Amino acid sequence: MIRVGLGYDLHRLVEGRPLILGGIAVPFEKGLEGHSDADALAHAITDALLGAAALGNIGQHFPDTDPRYKDADSIELLSHAAEMLRARGYRIVNIDSNIVAQRPKLNPHLDAMRARLSECLQIDVGCISVKAKTNERVGPEGREEAISTQAIALIESD
Ligand code: MG
User: pTM higher than 0.85, yes or no?
Assistant: First the structure.
């Protein structure tokens, strides 16, 4: 049996925070605001995986009102979600994703994100795609007010 799941996230870009995407610290003068480390790519992939298995959403499992998740490493939350799927007999087939950010230029960092995600999810790096897009200076991403992400995951079970 195969199933697909869809994930989306958006965080505001603010001064005084590190920019973490796909578990990688990307050098930039601003970072993403959030209760956790605000890794919007890890969050979208987590939701895509949970969605594929109809296991709810990231906010239900890791609520941002819970002090345990203050400044949480989102890669660990993603790893936990993958473990929930494995425990139910699912395997991840592949993941595709988009990061929508006007700046910084993300292409030089995408392979490092894929490697980190591959390690976290225990799947081949060839099964994880991360793509970067600008928003043509339009909308919150284009005005550098926010970075948004999208992810889709295919999972299978016997
Ligand atoms: Mg988020």
Answer: yes
